[in-house]
Write a structure and sequence with these properties.
The complex is a heterodimer of chains A (110) and B (113). Helix content of chain A is 0%, strand content 52%. Chain A has strands at residues 5-7, 10-13, 19-24, 31-37, 44-50, 53-57, 65-68, 75-79, 88-95, 99-101, 105-109. In chain A, the strands form two sheets. In chain A, strands 2, 4, 5, 6, 9, 10 and 11 form a seven-stranded mixed β-sheet that branches. In chain A, strands 1-3-8-7 form a four-stranded antiparallel β-sheet, with no helix packed on it. In chain A, strand 9 (88-95) and strand 10 (99-101) form a beta hairpin. Chain B has 113 residues and is mostly beta strands. Chain B has strands at residues 4-5, 10-14, 19-25, 32-38, 45-51, 56-58, 62-67, 72-77, 86-93, 102-103, 107-112. In chain B, a hairpin with an 8-residue loop joins strand 9 and strand 10 (102-103). The chains are: A mainly beta (110), B mainly beta (113).
């Protein structure tokens, strides 16, 4: 069964450093998303992406964040200058109708 | 803003019993609802969905009920098993393609042997 994959599974970084989180969505899906989940909290929407552009973003998704689909299969989330409060699980999802989630990347900013 | 919320943060249930998890939503425009299961350290896993033109939908051991009058959603798990221990989230959205999900706060289900 096709699934969304994400790399890395864990990332530890220093505050102020850039990180890139990678996702490979399900191949025939057209809509892609990033969500995050701070430890013990609910899943929060960050951004949705369709046809090579952002279709919606939340107020969390500020200028430090960017998304890209560099090669037709990968979908990346970049955080330019990480802050302590960026520590969270980051989930990629893709959909035609129902959103299917990847296993997540646990980001720890020190 | 619009939100989805859960009444019970933790539910302990005896193995073999039925579980009921509740969720209240506030966006009356939402027309598509999904239940996800999240095990520790993993991503949300789709369980079952329901569209707003239905009030009940059954899957394998799971049933989702939708009451649009009071904006309430529930997930029933029959004959709960140890593997059902997880956090369960409801999510709402507008069914048009590409719309974001708004998640509730989650209910932890603990299955006692």
């Amino acid at each position: 069964e096709p699934e969304v994959t994400q790399t890395p599974s864990h990332q530890v970084t220093q505050m102020g450093q850039e990180v890139i989180l990678r996702c490979v969505p399900i191949s025939n899906h057209l809509y892609f998303y990033w969500y995050r989940q701070i430890l013990g909290q609910k899943v929060e929407f960050l951004v949705s992406f369709y046809n090579n552009e952002i279709s919606e973003k939340s107020e969390i998704f500020d200028d430090q964040f960017s998304v890209e689909r560099p090669d037709g299969s990968n979908f990346t989330l970049k955080i330019r200058s990480t802050k302590l409060e960026d520590s969270a699980m980051y989930f990629c999802a893709s959909t035609t109708e129902t959103q299917y989630f990847g296993p997540g990347t646990r980001l720890l900013v020190l | 803003g619009e939100s989805v919320g859960l009444h019970l943060p933790t539910l302990s249930v005896q193995e073999g019993d039925n579980s009921i998890i509740n969720c209240a939503y506030s966006n009356s425009a939402s027309d598509y609802f999904i239940w996800y299961k999240q095990e520790s350290g993993k991503g949300p896993q789709f369980i079952i969905d329901i569209r707003s033109n239905m009030d009940k939908r059954q899957g394998q051991r799971v049933t989702v009920l939708l009451n649009k009058t009071v904006k309430h959603l529930s997930l029933q798990i029959a004959a709960t098993q140890p593997g059902d221990s997880a956090v369960y989230f409801c999510a709402e959205t507008l069914r048009a393609a590409g719309n974001k999900l708004t998640f509730g706060g989650g209910t932890r289900v603990l299955v006692k042997p």
